[in-house]
Design a protein that fits this description.
Helix content: 40-55%
Family: Belongs to the enoyl-CoA hydratase/isomerase family.
InterPro entries: ClpP/crotonase-like_dom_sf, Enoyl-CoA_hydra/iso, Enoyl-CoA_hydra_C
CATH architecture: Alpha-Beta Complex
GO molecular function, one term: catalytic activity
Protein name: Enoyl-CoA hydratase/carnithine racemase
CATH topology: 2-enoyl-CoA Hydratase, Chain A, domain 1
Strand order of the largest sheet: 1-2-3-4-5-7-10
Order of helices and strands: EEEHEHHEEHEEHHEHEHHH
Largest sheet: 7 strands, mixed
Strand content: 15-25%
Radius of gyration: 18 Å
Pfam families: ECH_1
Number of helices: 10
Length: about 260
């Protein structure tokens, strides 16, 4: 029996053993503002405790998975407590997603950029449509990756390649991302068909044993992930106060190339 739950920013559909969580700000390419982050955290926590659910699919409504953190949120003259609350929510969401006792799939359409890409990396399996674009592009606005990306990128491609990817901020095609080990599968036809195929395979597998393996590895890695998230929070706070970040934001708004000065 299917169960649907809809909010302004997050949709949840439960169909048998599969929960589908949909980011729902299509007009902004599912940019992650504080409201959506809180909604995602609440939904993920709820799903984590549903014994009947074995698999969670994370997707975006409309043309994109998620274009990343909402620029309007970055422009707010937020005091330190506001910034801290946003970062704490991001960190709790990432830990919840990474360690939940479910198998998780990111179904990527369009853009998965910045924090949106970080969330995808926190899942167990990333499946992208062929025309999708993936980017760890914080550097373009003078910031560092957050959402645990330093942890996830090092795990997937190693420290040296992770640094180069972060520093370049290159936009990758789905095929390029798969070739270097950032994602697991590129859909040859419709993304929905590829997702259904993966779900069918997993639903006919011993999911309890698969989830136990996930839990063992997540428990082992949790202290390092928590340390990285805290370092990202501290580092991001410092970066937000730099001239380069202000220039990056202004250039983004004015749709021009930024002129960075290393300050």
């Amino acid at each position: 029996m299917a169960i649907d739950f809809v909010t302004d920013t997050v949709n949840l559909q439960i169909d048998g053993r599969v929960a589908t969580v949909e980011m729902n700000r299509p007009e902004s390419l599912n940019a992650l503002n504080f409201e959506m982050l809180k909604g995602l955290l609440a939904v993920m926590k709820e799903v984590s405790h549903l014994n009947e659910v074995d698999i969670v699919v994370l997707k975006g409504n409309g043309r994109a998975f998620s274009s990343g953190g909402d620029i309007k949120t970055m422009l707010l003259e937020a005091n330190e407590s506001d910034f801290s609350s946003v970062m704490d929510c991001i960190n709790e969401l990432v830990v919840t997603l990474y360690s939940m006792p479910k198998l998780t799939i990111s179904a990527v359409t369009g853009a998965a950029a910045g924090l949106g890409f970080s969330l995808a990396l926190a899942t167990d399996y990333i499946l992208a449509e062929k025309s999708s674009k993936l980017a760890m592009n914080f550097i373009g606005i003078g910031l560092i990756p957050d959402g645990g990306s330093h942890f996830f990128l090092q795990q997937r491609i190693g420290e040296d390649k992770a640094k180069q990817l972060i520093w370049e901020g290159k936009v990758l095609s789905a095929d390029e991302a798969m070739q270097i080990g950032l994602i697991h599968e590129v859909a040859e036809d419709e993304l929905s068909t590829a997702v259904e195929s993966k779900l069918s395979k997993w639903l006919n597998s011993p999911t309890e044993a698969m989830i136990k393996t996930k839990k063992i590895l997540a428990d082992k890695n949790r202290p390092l992930l928590l340390k990285v998230l805290e370092l990202e929070k501290l580092g991001q706070h410092k970066m937000r106060q730099t001239e380069d970040h202000q220039e990056g934001i202004q250039a983004f708004i004015e749709k021009r190339n930024p002129v960075f000065k290393g300050k």
